[in-house]
Structure to design on (320 residues):
């Protein structure tokens, strides 16, 4: 004897619900999902749910990266006091915003495979506040024409501690702490470095007789950092690095997050690499207006790449 399937109970349009036989289950037209289905969270929604962490990554990266650029320019070039003090002051403002954003970080990443360790939250906040305070002291030292190498070194140490504690808190374990730390450091140097380079480009527009050495140095460093990001992208994608990668090497290129991964590669890495090379060549030829325009473009593309990288990590556990 063949068992007949249990009929579905449907509601006819513009009429009350038709009587259903015993054991009937709700049909799809009832709008009831029951326990057999659920609404799948799409990647864009997952990224939006982790905007607090993305905001922290961008603000902290801008503050730390621009401070690193100032210290490098102060120690290695004859950059003007005005540029150094102004960019360092920007790092202080961005650091304050990063401290405020850190206070608003949730204790758990919504819908993300990342396991957060709250034990490192307070050390990270203390280190970030110390970095901001030391950067403010360095601004005063620069305004008074002091080199202040010990203050600069202390600020760099506090910046490194901030990123270390961040990696330990968000790596989901010690296995991914080192790759995540490397990602945070590279993102900070790239994001803040291009911001400092763009500011320096404006100084040449106001004072055209400035030597080109500072802009060439920062542009060369920016090109090297972006090139390193491309190499790390290839390594991490080919090895399936990240707490959210479960399907093996290169799976992120075709999975549900593939659109954002390709945007990270093309918009956030390949295009900035080409523009960084062009900015370096124009700076060497003293075409400072062209170099500044290219750096303006790079600010947007590198910032977009940082947002994508942070969103992919905190939303899906992907290192790219």
């Amino acid at each position: 004897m063949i068992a007949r399937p249990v009929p579905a109970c449907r509601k006819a349009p513009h009429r009350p619900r038709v009587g259903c036989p015993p054991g009937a289950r709700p049909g799809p037209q009832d709008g009831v999902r029951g326990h057999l289905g659920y609404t799948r969270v799409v990647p864009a929604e997952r990224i939006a749910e982790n905007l607090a962490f993305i905001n922290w990554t961008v603000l902290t990266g801008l503050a730390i990266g621009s401070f690193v650029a100032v210290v490098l320019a102060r120690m290695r070039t004859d950059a003007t006091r005005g540029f150094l003090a102004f960019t360092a002051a920007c790092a202080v403002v961005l650091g304050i915003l990063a401290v405020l954003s850190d206070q608003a970080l949730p204790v758990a990443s919504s819908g993300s495979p990342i396991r957060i360790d709250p034990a490192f939250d307070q050390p990270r906040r203390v280190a970030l506040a110390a970095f901001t305070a030391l950067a403010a002291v360095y601004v005063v030292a620069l305004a008074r024409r002091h080199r202040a190498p010990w203050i600069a070194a202390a600020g760099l140490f506090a910046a490194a501690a901030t990123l270390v504690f961040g990696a330990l808190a968000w790596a989901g374990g010690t296995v991914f702490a080192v790759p995540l730390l490397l990602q945070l450091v590279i993102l900070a140097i790239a994001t803040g470095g291009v911001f400092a380079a763009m500011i320096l480009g404006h100084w040449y527009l106001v004072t055209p007789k400035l030597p080109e050495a500072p802009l060439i140095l920062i542009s060369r460093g920016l090109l090297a950092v972006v090139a390193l990001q491309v190499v790390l992208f290839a390594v991490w994608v080919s090895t399936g690095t990240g707490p959210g990668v479960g399907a093996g090497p290169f799976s992120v290129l075709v999975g549900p997050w593939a659109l954002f991964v390709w945007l990270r590669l093309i918009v956030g890495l390949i295009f900035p690499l080409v523009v960084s090379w062009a900015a370096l060549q124009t700076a060497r030829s003293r075409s400072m207006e062209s170099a500044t325009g290219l750096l303006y473009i790079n600010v947007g593309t590198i910032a977009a790449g940082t947002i994508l990288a942070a969103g992919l990590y905190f939303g899906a556990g992907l290192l790219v």
Q: What stands out?
A: The first strand starts at residue 8 and ends at 9. Residues 193 and 221 are 8 Å apart (CA to CA). The chain is about 65% helix and 0% strand.
